[in-house]
């Protein structure tokens, strides 16, 4: 189950969740810098499963994190292009 803990559009998104005895906290902070957007992400996990399978879970987290940032970048750039196109019309 996942629960949104903080949503401050367009800058902060934070949520908590738990599954299979793993408790997770995720926080994403977006910051505009010179026409670009930088994302600071923090994630933490706890639970017996995490302690037993720390290495395997870290590898999967790293892959999921990279994929998530890649998808975020694609969507953000798509929306920015769409907004720019609308302004030109």
Structural commentary:
The chain has 89 residues and is α+β, with helices and mostly antiparallel strands. The chain has 2 helices and 4 strands. The chain has helices at 48-52, 54-88; strands spanning 2-8, 12-19, 22-33, 36-46. The protein has a 4-stranded antiparallel beta sheet. The N and C termini lie far apart (43 Å).
By DSSP, the count of extended strands is 4
* Main sheet makeup: 4 strands, antiparallel
From the spread of the alpha carbons, the general shape counts as elongated
The share of residues in extended strands comes to 35-45%
Domain count: the total is: 1
Please state the oligomeric state of the protein chains shown.
single chain
What class would the helix/strand composition place it in? alpha+beta
* Average pLDDT number: 90
Helix content: 40-55%
Distance between the termini: 43 Å
Spatial order of strands in the largest sheet: 1-2-3-4
Count of alpha/pi helices? 2
Evaluate the radius of gyration. 16 Å
Order of helices and strands: EEEEHH
Weakly predicted, low-confidence segments:
none
């Amino acid at each position: 189950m996942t629960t949104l803990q903080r949503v401050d559009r367009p800058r902060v998104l934070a949520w908590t969740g738990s599954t299979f005895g793993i408790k997770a906290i995720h926080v994403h902070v977006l910051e505009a810098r010179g026409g670009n957007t930088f994302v600071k992400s923090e994630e933490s996990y706890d639970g017996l499963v995490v302690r037993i399978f720390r290495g395997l879970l870290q590898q999967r987290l790293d892959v999921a994190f990279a994929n998530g940032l890649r998808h975020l970048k694609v969507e953000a750039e798509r929306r920015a292009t769409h907004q720019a196109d609308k302004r030109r019309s």
